[in-house]
Amino acid sequence: MRSELSRVLLAFRREFWTVGIFSLTINVLMLTPTLYMLQIYDRVLVSQSGLTLVALSLVALFLFLVMAFAEWTRSRILVRAGVSFDEALNVRVFSASFDAALNQNGMNPRQAFLDLTNLRQFLTGNGIFAFFDAPWTPVYLGVLFLLHPYLGWLAIIFAASLAALTWLAHRATQATTAELVATAKDASLYLQSKVRNAEVIEAMGMSGNLRRHWRNRQNRHLFVAAKSQELGRRWQSLIKGMRYSQQSLMLGAGAWLVIEGDLTIGGMIAANVLMSRALAPIDLVAATWKSFITAAEAYRSLTALLSENPPRAAGESHPKPTGAMRVVGLVASAHGREKPILNGIDLEFSPGTMTAILGPSGSGKSTLARCLVGVWPQWQGRVLLDGVPIERWGRGDLGPHIGYLPQDVELLEGTIAENIARFGEIKADEVILAAKRAGIHEMILRFPMGYDTPIGEGGAFLSGGQRQRVGLARAIYGEPALIVLDEPNANLDEVGEAALQETLATLRQLGKTVVLITHRPAALGLADRIVLLSDGCVKLQGPREEVLARLSASRPNLPPTTVAPQTA
C-alpha cells in the first residue's frame, strides 16, 4: 500500500510526464551541435559553399532556440509543481507535527518543515534533471556506435567505470554523511533548547558549563565535517581526473580512427561531444548526490511522520454541552514509564459546581487536567462530556466549549487581544468581558497600546502574574462550559488572588463546571467538592466540609488554615 506522501507525489504524474516529454525534446536537440559540426567539417569545408553554411547555421540556431524554450518550460513546470506540492502538504505536515508534539514523541516541527523544503527543492533543482536525462545516455551511445563500433564500446566502458566510481564514492561517504547530519542536528537542538532558558542560565552562572557541553557537540560536528569534506573531495578529485582522462582518450581514439581512414575529422570531434553528453547525466548525479541523499532522508522522515500521525477523524457535531463530565476507569501512562501516572480514576463533575483537586507533587493532578480536556496522548478508560466520549468530539467544535489554563502558562506571540480571543475573530465585547471577569481590564488599559499591546514570544514582555491572568482570561473567553485551571494562583499576588476568587465565584454563578487544581487553602473556600489524589489514585473525594474534616482528623498536626473549611 502506497504511503500518503507517495500518493501526493503520484498526483503530479502528469507534470512529470510533461517534463519527460520536454526532456526527450531537449536530449534529441542536444544532437544539434554534433550534426552541425559533422556538416561543417565534412560538407561545408569540402564544398566551400557559403550558402550551405548560412542555411545550416540558421537551422542550428532555430533548433537551439527550440531547445532553450524547452529548457525554460521544463524548469517552469517543475517550479510550479514544487509550489503545488508544498501547498498540498504544508497544512498536513503542520497538523502532523502538532500531533507529534502533542503525543510527546520528540519530533521537532522545524525539522519536519525543513524536510518538506529539502524535498521540494530537490524536485525543482538540478538533481531531478539527472533522472530525466539519464535514460538518454543509451541514445548518445547508439549514435557513437553509428560513427564507429569501437567508439561505442569505448564509451560504454567509460560510462560503466564512471558510474562504478560514483557508486563507490557514495558507499565510502555514506556513513560520514549520515554522522555529519546527526551531529549537526544534535548541536543545533542542544543550543536551541538552552537559549529558551537564557535568563535562568545567566542568573545562576550556568553559561560556562553549558557552553562546554555545547562545544563538545560542536567540536564533534566540526571533526566529522572536516572528515566528510576531505573524503568527499578525495573522491571528487578521482572522479574529475577520470572524467578528464576519458575525454582525452576518446579524442585520441577518434584521431587513431582518422589516421586509419575509418573516421572523418568531423566524426572525431562529434564523438568527443557525444561522449560528453553521454556522461553528463552521470556527472550531474555525482554532483547532486548529497542533495539526493538529503531528499531521500527527508522522504523517509516525512513518510514516518505522516504515517504515525494520520489525519484526525472529522469528529461528531453535538449540541452545546452543559459541562457535565464523568470519568470512568481512567488510566494514564507515559513513554518509558512502566507504572501508570493515573490508575483507575472514577469521578463526576456537575455544572454549576467547582471541584478542587488536591494532592502532593507527582500525584497526577496535571495529568488528570490534561485528560479532562483531551490532550493527554496515552490513556484508557472513558472521559465523557455530556455523556459523549471526548475523543468523539471534533476538536474544532469542542475547543470553544473548554477553557484550560495549564500550570506552565503558554501564551503565543501576538497582542493581548489576540491571545484572549484564542487567535480567532476578535470580538471586542467578548474580549473585554473575559478580561473584566479575570480582573485584568484595568491592568490592560494601563499598557501603552491597551489590548493591542504585543506581548512577545511566549508572553516575554509580561510578568509571571500578568501571563497567568491573561491565560485565565483566555480560558474563560467565549463562555466555555468546562473550565480546568491548573494552579491558576501560582504566580499571583494578593490583588491577583482576590481577583481570582471573584472570577471563580462568577463562574459558579454562571453555571460553569470548574475544576481547580491548587495547593493554596484560600481557593478551597469556594469549592463544592474536593478530590485528593495520591500516587495516581483517588484517596478521598466528597463535599468540601466532609473531606476537610477527614483530612483534619487524619493530620492533626497540620496548621488549622490548611484544613479548616472556609465560607463561600
Report what the structure shows.
With 568 residues, the protein is an alpha/beta fold. It has 21 helices and 10 strands. It has helices at residues 4-10, 13-29, 32-47, 50-102, 109-124, 126-133, 137-147, 149-195, 198-203, 207-259, 265-287, 289-308, 365-372, 395-398, 416-420, 428-437, 441-445, 464-476, 494-509, 544-554, 560-563; strands at residues 325-332, 342-349, 354-358, 379-385, 388-389, 402-405, 482-486, 513-517, 529-534, 537-543. A 6-stranded mixed β-sheet has the order 6-7-8-3-9-10, sandwiched between helices. Strands 2-1-4-5 form a 4-stranded antiparallel β-sheet.
Describe the structure concisely.
This protein is an alpha/beta fold. The chain is built from 21 helices and 10 strands.
List the helices and strands and how they pair.
Blueprint: H1 4-10, H2 13-29, H3 32-47, H4 50-102, H5 109-124, H6 126-133, H7 137-147, H8 149-195, H9 198-203, H10 207-259, H11 265-287, H12 289-308, E1 325-332, E2 342-349, E3 354-358, H13 365-372, E4 379-385, E5 388-389, H14 395-398, E6 402-405, H15 416-420, H16 428-437, H17 441-445, H18 464-476, E7 482-486, H19 494-509, E8 513-517, E9 529-534, E10 537-543, H20 544-554, H21 560-563
Parallel strand pairs: 3-8, 3-9, 6-7, 7-8
Antiparallel strand pairs: 1-2, 1-4, 4-5, 9-10
